[in-house]
Amino acid sequence: AGKFYFSGTVRIDGSSRFGDNIRYGSFGAVGAAWELSQEDWFPEFFDRFKLRAAYGVVGNQEGLGSNQFSQRERFNTGNIDNGGTFIPGGTGIVAFDNPDLKWEETTTTNIGVDFAFADNRFSGSLEYYNRTTSDFILQINSAQPAVQPFFFQNIDGDIVNQGVELSLNFIPVETEDFSWDINFNIGYNDNIVENYDGPALDTGQINGPGLTGAFAQRIANNQPIFSFFVRDFQGIDPVSGGNIFLNEGSQVFVGESALPDVTLGFTQNFRYKNWDASIFFNGLFGQSVYNNNRNAFFTIGNLSQGRNVTADVLPFIGVENPFNPAEVSTRFLEDGSFLRLQNVTIGHNFNLSENSIFSNLRLFANAQNLFVITDYSGQDPEVSVNRSIGNVPSLGIDLTAFPRPTTISIGFNASF
Fold first, then answer.
1. CA 224 and chain centroid, separation
2. pLDDT-derived band at 66, boundaries 50, 70, 90
3. For the segment 46-65, what is each residue's pLDDT rounded down to a tens digit?
4. What is the C-alpha end-to-end distance of the chain, expressed in Å?
5. What is the spatial distance between Cα 232 and Cα 244, in angstroms, rounded to a whole number?
6. Contact 59, 103 (CB under 8 A)
7. For residues 343 and 169, what is the distance between their CA atoms, to the nearest angstrom?
8. What is the DSSP letter of 297?
9. For 64-79, what is the mean pLDDT?
10. With contact defined as beta carbons under 8 Å apart, do 263 and 189 qualify?
């Protein structure tokens, strides 16, 4: 009837990344929508108003390399005896097999509305989602007395993401010579690990002098997946010059995660005759970044041992013990929220004569990452350094990460 929509899919995926026992996964999705604005009784104020809902399950294998389900062996180093004869090394098991390794599954439920009014000059959507990943794959160290070997296993537990996303599009001006449209989106996401009763999984390796074996994150039940697990730093003892920690210096969850609570995007597009311009901002808010650079390189302990440090260490001279250990703590945990001017583009389309060798010609100038507004003391709050431990993923740790460059380009597009 032009107002009810239904859809459904079923698929079976197979992958050689899994063993013979459970190589295939069956997945599917269903969806429905109701175009309420097509009903006679619905207010004519709306040009469009659609209610929609969907439910689906998809499989994931991207976090798993090839042949991780099989037992793997490696040759040990050989040696040469006193007579000069080479004696090859034997083989040792590197990883045990797991023929029951299977797909991760992500179940998603979406409920939303799409709307438009004022002759479609104002439109948008509002959506609630719940996305639950189960049977997620992690590398598990074997129980002792096994010597080192590990295996990959599907973990009993759920990684739950749920939140709300709002998208708005507005056209304030639209004439023959000039147009201006605005696109805005914002989303809130809440992440937590549920139904996991296995051992806590440490990750987020921290490097630096005296930091062998240090880590800053832990995956545990009823915590966000990239939660920081560090000492709660309260300052410097005025008498001893040492660190003051809560909880007797034990590492604890401090209520901070590397995942943002809020994501934001804001775009403005302009057109005046043959000229056009676009400005795009993006931002992440509510996430924390562990500044491993400060922890490793810019502490008073480095200065006392003759290493270079930054000027912000100088106020601690005479206050902090020169040999005070730079333990993993909230001292180096910072707010990573930012707003970035991500992209600016200006272009001009030429009016061409019929005898021109070009059918279309456009000149443009583009700039990326012009500036970022943030309280983070490092070079860039949007870090992506892999600091995993035992293939347990980590996020939001800054250690010698190369900052995003500012890029300016000028070019043309031509059609003949």
1. 13
2. low
3. 999 999 999 999 988 776 65
4. 46
5. 8
6. yes
7. 19
8. H
9. 69
10. yes
